[in-house]
Amino acid sequence: MKKIHTSIKDLFIIEPEVYKDDRGYFMESFKENWFKKEFPDIKFIQDNESKSTYGILRGLHFQTPPFSQTKLVRVVKGKVLDVAVDLRKESQTYGEFESIVLSDENKKQFLVPKGFAHGFLVLSKVAIFSYKVDNIYSKEHDSGIIWNSKDLSIDWKISTDHIKVSEKDNNLQSFNQFNSPF
Which residues pair with 74 in a beta bridge? Predict the structure, then answer.
């Protein structure tokens, strides 16, 4: 596996080694001993998976302390635009975001640490999205920032006419309304 730095401290792209032949491919999507060596403070406790269709946008979500989560995300089928926004008040990149296309073809993964809002938009007909978390879900600590916050100006790569968002996600606060607990 390869650990790739992004423009934001503590936010990484993980690229597994993929072995392809005429039968298909093989890869290790997670290797605990490698992960412990590279990220000794992270211990994943749960795997989650969602299935969505073209234009579905999930996010921008985060959990507040003490239930904040680190996520290791990847796409099993299809293609998404994945976005992480730095919410850490003391960070030099506070309010900045990184986006990456994750797909079943490129096999890349995105390590989104605590203190970031996270979301993704489905760019393919269907996408199966899989992710590991290092903390349990707490409804009382669930929060987010609205996906189209003008304060962030995220380019979601498709027309907003095609974007479908849950009612909950469409009623989230803007970045400027947000008071960071991180």
Answer: 109, 130
